[in-house]
Specification:
alpha/beta, five-stranded antiparallel β-sheet, single chain
Length: about 750
């Protein structure tokens, strides 16, 4: 309180920092108690925001394309939905011109962005800026287009639809429907690699007469602002569809929701002149086409392929948090690619699930509207000063805080709260401190994660750690369990359902053991996410999203690496768990691709101790029938460590060197003998453990807040991580920094373990 010479009093607010020091005075706009103020009446100041503390790091998302393109409108909605659930300080821009996109990224760097995310539709335009960001140790995420350029621009995570696979799916659908003539691929933007990849995929699989690429001029926003230009644009497409009064194509593939709308408008304008032209789309959904009559859709609409715009937008925000929190992010020189496997979208018409379709459409419209609202005032951290003038001229002060519904809490009276009538003027007088009442946050819906395997398995320790990081960002109420036995895993799922879990996430290592429990939980109202293993079983288990390493591709790439190393003799695929379909797929990929002498499967005793596994490996690989093995592919961190010990003893006893290509583990290698690593390790493939753990919780958060009801979800979205060989050379060059990264990971693991100890 500051008393002026005229007797009026000014008030301010201070907050106590974490260091125990009082912060700067915050001055309300209305802060003066005048000399003629009435007595015995509480006078409130205006409010001040005391959120204080370190501001949230800035995350910048910069895309290509027109701002009113239906894809980017929806993408933005899901991006901001994810950001709102994790209190993210997010900025989003989209530009048709690559130079404008680069300029937006430069502004982000100038404004101190912690993470920047960019599309790579035109990678040359943004490459220099993104590499500059990496030099500044700003995290870089890429998304949507240009997956093959992600590594070149310094990306650490890339989130996208598998564009080529989407085109391939369209080609197969045309073949199955008996289409055999010319097919058009309608490209609505220039210099967009993702659109070219979709046409590439169509050309690769379509068995008919051929594919013609139809290049349209780029359209910014003439639909809203220039009806004449828009009318001319529709007529241009209509003219492209016909030749001498007949349809030029048997079918046309459009590559976005807007393009499908334009194509349908063009067909409508032709008034039957398009004949039996069939239209397919990557990106349009039934919700986008609600304005068209059913008769038109039934005559011309053939195939809708999901572009995963919802999860893509949601996961980009998640990937930025992952990159920001990743313990060794600055050492990642090859991005983790997360690609959505394309799937057919629902074709529901007005008579089929009409109410569900209408509700989903209305919910999406609300989400879009919410994403357009920015800078909303947060009242939760607002306080005001209340002053009461007594008859003797002294003034009593109190503090009030605003609650979640915008009302003011009861006045909190400091112990030292009176400014005497004869107090000197010109100096600030301090009250004692008060502790504002904490808002009681209701406990959120229960998220249950139930995995296979042992909690002592290093993979699950690290995956659990990143689940922990992700869950705490969203303040999620979640439970984690892991069981070696499938029956125990199913029992844990049943218990989660009985406890009213809103979302249950399960691995499908043993799908037969858990599918019935997952379907029962879904019938009881839970949303289902699957992860890690068993992608091909996700649909049967009622899953809405499956998040996993592409296990078969991991085996394929490992085989290619082994051949490149010059290995041609017998190799073994070491199986540490029985009946795990994910591990089976890794071995199958290895067997299908390796061109050398043979691939054998070596089954370890499940549940054995590390010492027992070492002895088992030595006994097996010194047996005369196995003594010619040149290399082993191990499938988790624990097996790698045991194999290093076993193979080093075999080398010491016989001089025979067995090399190891492990899938999984990196920083933990510090626990192993350097000489043994140098002698036996041939390469190291990632198993996406950090990003997989993180995105599982993001997927659960997504389905919990999804606008689409389960009955409209025909098949799960499959998000598969592409495996790649890791390069440990940089970590070896900077031992001190590597040690710091290891300590960060160990802290994550310890915090997750502490949560386990506390229980749900």
């Amino acid at each position: 309180m500051l008393k002026s010479d005229d007797g009026s009093v000014r008030v301010s607010v201070q907050t106590l920092g974490a260091d125990g020091e009082w912060g700067e005075r915050l001055l309300p706009n209305r802060r003066v108690v005048p000399t003629d103020a009435p007595t015995d009446t509480w006078l409130p100041s205006s409010s001040v925001d005391i959120a204080g503390g370190e501001p949230a790091p800035l995350f910048c998302v910069v895309a290509h394309g027109a701002p009113d393109d239906r894809f980017w409108v929806k993408f933005r909605a899901y991006l901001f939905q994810s950001a709102a659930l994790t209190d993210t300080n997010l900025r989003f821009e989209t530009h048709l011109d690559g130079a404008d996109q680069a300029a937006a990224l430069e502004r982000c760097l100038a404004d101190g962005a912690a993470v920047v995310a960019s599309t790579l539709a035109s990678p040359d335009d943004v490459k220099e800026t993104l590499l500059k960001a990496r030099e500044m140790e700003v995290r870089v995420v890429t998304f949507n287009a240009g997956v093959e350029h992600a590594e070149d621009v310094g990306s650490q995570v890339h989130i996208a639809l598998n564009d080529r696979a989407a085109g391939e799916l369209a080609g197969r659908q045309f073949n199955e429907r008996g289409i055999s003539g010319q097919v058009g691929c309608l490209i609505h933007e220039r210099d967009n690699l993702s659109l070219e990849h979709r046409c590439d995929g169509l050309e690769a699989t379509y068995a008919g007469a051929g594919v013609t690429r139809i290049q349209l001029e780029e359209v910014a926003s003439h639909r809203q602002h220039d009806p004449t230009a828009h009318d001319l644009f529709i007529q241009t497409i209509a003219n492209e569809f016909i030749d001498q009064g007949r349809s030029r194509y048997d079918a046309v593939l459009t590559l976005s929701a807007d393009s499908m709308e334009h194509a349908l408008r063009a067909v409508e304008r032709l008034e039957g002149g398009a004949g039996d032209l069939r239209l397919a789309s990557v990106g349009a959904s039934r919700e986008d086409l609600a304005a068209f009559p059913d008769a038109l859709l039934e005559q011309h609409l053939d195939v809708l392929i999901s572009d995963s715009v919802d999860t893509q937008g949601f996961f980009v925000a998640s990937a930025m948090h992952l990159s920001h929190k990743l313990h060794h992010a600055v050492y990642i020189n090859q991005p983790q690619l997360w690609l959505a496997d394309p799937s057919l979208a629902g074709m529901d018409t007005a008579g089929e699930n009409a109410q569900a379709v209408a509700a989903a459409s209305a919910s999406l419209d609300r989400l879009i509207a919410e994403s357009m609202v920015s800078d909303s005032e947060d009242h939760a951290a607002n306080v005001r000063v209340a002053a009461l003038k007594r008859a003797d001229g002294s003034i009593v002060f109190a503090i009030q805080s605003m609650d979640a519904d915008g009302g003011w809490n009861q006045r909190q009276l400091p112990q030292l709260r009176v400014l005497a009538a004869d107090a000197p003027s010109g100096i600030w007088h301090l009250s004692s401190g008060v502790e504002l009442p904490a808002e009681e946050e209701p406990e959120g819906p229960l998220f249950c994660v139930v995995a296979h395997g042992s909690k002592a398995d290093r993979y699950w320790q690290v995956a659990r750690a990143y689940m922990h990081v992700s869950a705490h960002l969203a303040d999620a109420n979640y439970r984690f369990e892991s069981h070696l036995d499938g029956a125990d895993q199913a029992a844990a799922i049943d218990q989660c359902s009985a406890d009213g879990a809103a979302v249950i996430a399960s691995t499908l290592a043993d799908p037969d053991a858990v599918t019935d429990s997952l379907l029962a939980a879904k019938a009881a109202g839970a949303r289902i996410v699957t992860f890690n293993s068993g992608a091909s079983f996700a649909a049967a288990a009622g899953s809405e999203i499956h998040v996993a390493l592409d296990d078969r591709e991991a085996g394929v790439r490992a085989a290619q690496r082994i051949s490149a190393l010059g290995v041609s003799g017998p190799i073994v695929c070491v199986m540490h768990e029985q009946g795990n379909v994910g591990l089976e797929e890794r071995c199958e990929g290895l067997e299908a691709t390796y061109q050398g002498e043979s691939v054998r499967r070596l089954h370890l005793t499940e549940g054995a101790s590390d010492e027992e596994v070492v002895e088992e490996l030595i006994a097996k690989l010194t047996d005369p029938e196995w003594a010619d093995v040149q290399m082993a592919m191990t499938l988790n961190a624990n097996t790698l460590f045991n194999a290093l010990k076993a193979f080093d003893r075999i080398y010491a006893d016989s001089g025979h060197t067995i090399r190891i290509l492990p899938i999984g583990s990196h920083v933990d290698l510090r626990l192993t003998d350097l000489a043994a690593r140098q002698r036996h390790m041939a390469s190291l493939f990632n198993d996406s453990v950090e990003s997989q753990g993180f995105l599982v919780l993001s997927a659960m958060l997504f389905v919990q807040n999804s606008h689409t009801p389960p009955e409209l979800i025909g098949s799960p979205q499959l998000w598969l991580a592409t495996p790649f060989a890791l390069n440990a050379s940089r970590a070896q060059q900077d031992v001190a920094r590597t040690r710091m990264f290891v300590q960060t990971l160990l802290r994550y693991v310890a915090e997750a373990a502490a949560d386990d100890e506390e229980g749900p």
